[in-house]
Amino acid sequence: MKITVDLDKCQDHGQCAIAAPVAFRMNDEGNLEYETTVDDSYLDEVEEAADVCPVQAILVAQG
Amino acid sequence: MTITPTAAAPRLAVTDPSFSITSDEVHAAREQSWYAHTEYGLAILRYEEVSKLMKHPKLRQGSAAWPAHNGVTEGPFAQWFDSWILNKEGEEHHRLRRLLNPAFSPKLIGGLVPRFQALAGELIDAFAERGECDFTAEFAEPYAARVIAIMLGLPESEWQMIARESATLGLALGVTLKQDLPQIEEALAKLYAYADGLISDRSANPRDDFMTTLVQAQRDGDRLSSTELRDAIVLLIFGGYDTTRNQLGLAMQTFMQHPDQWDVLAANPALGGQAVEEVMRVNPTVRWVTREAVETFEYQGLLIEAGTTVHLFSESAGTDPRVFGERSFDIEAERKPHYGFGGGAHHCLGHFVARSDMSEALPLLARRLRNPQPLPGATWLADSGNTGPISLPISFTAAP
Predict the structure, then answer these.
(1) Cα distance from B134 to chain A (closest Cα, Å)?
(2) CA atoms B317, B322, B323, B328: torsion sign
(3) Which residues contact B158 (CB under 8 A, 6 or more apart)?
(4) Does the distance separating the beta carbons of A13 and B344 come in below 8 Å?
(5) What is the ipTM of this complex?
(6) How many domains does chain A have?
(7) What CATH number has the domain bearing residue A9?
(8) Mean pLDDT, range B139-161, rounded to an integer
């Protein structure tokens, strides 16, 4: 699946990194780093991350 | 980088009974310095610094020691407080968050919108013709409590129990915790009994509802234990009631000060969501968000020592002229996000619920209660910590 994050909306809360550490992490400066392509087997947790983002900045596309 | 000598920063006496966290004194301090000294530690006053420190990796949530600071170190209340997801950090926190997240999904909450609308309408019907009401007792309290009942699948007629027991639990966040402990623990026992009943029922008879999702929560084979479930349910009742009740009252206060905006909202109900955000920017019920330094670190030239309590002032940040310009209240303006729901790892779990139910209530109130005016006799919680009206008599012109 493909992951896109609207970095203008992103506020670095880090809820995504808690929900789906396979795809999202907060670096030492507290800023988001993420994988743009993740294996489909992780779909549930990546969708969970999109769900919990307080500003709804994450888009997940299958394929 | 300039090192600000700590002696130059202003001092705010936040524990003084006359202190108001939204006063000119606080705003003047903000214009002088991005931080101030308090009896607890540091107060952070400007938007950018509040935003950064809210999620800073060297700051943990700061309230875990509250009961101990008030002489309460054992017993059911201390244990329940210790169980709060808010007081956990690292993997212990993340595990609970991952298990609770699905039950609070924005997708599930969308389905409850018609019930929120019906509830708001029913409550307004009960007092509209009188042309006056106590907005807290007759709208904010039953609305907040019945939303919780809807979420938990309790009969809405249970709302007074929810309101009463939550209010008693709320005493625990004030300085009378130690002497109020027996009644606090009695309220806790009652809410635990309710929670246990819900857990048993949904385990035996699963439904398509929020409570069943919570009871069935599992992730990679890991589940919430019945202790974790009951603790979470009581936290949900307590955490969701007081705050929503207060925030609705503060919304009414702000809109009474800006009648033109109330008219805009009445004419454009789709602005309900933005109205909630703009109210929470200038008049948040959560007046400060508490953090504690886990290690000594330097931030913008200030050395913050391990163990320092840091209070992030939400209204000061929300009205920071560097970000929001001259003081205004405009529900149509595009704004940077406020911090009324906290932020970072401990961002309010229930915020989609709160945003949804308040977004439904405010436009309906705006349409049906025209030209609301304060009547004498309003009583208020102290302007610090969590605030709001205890009673809020208002008059208005009823409209269909």
Answers:
(1) 33
(2) positive
(3) B149
(4) yes
(5) 0.97
(6) 1
(7) 3.30.70.20
(8) 91
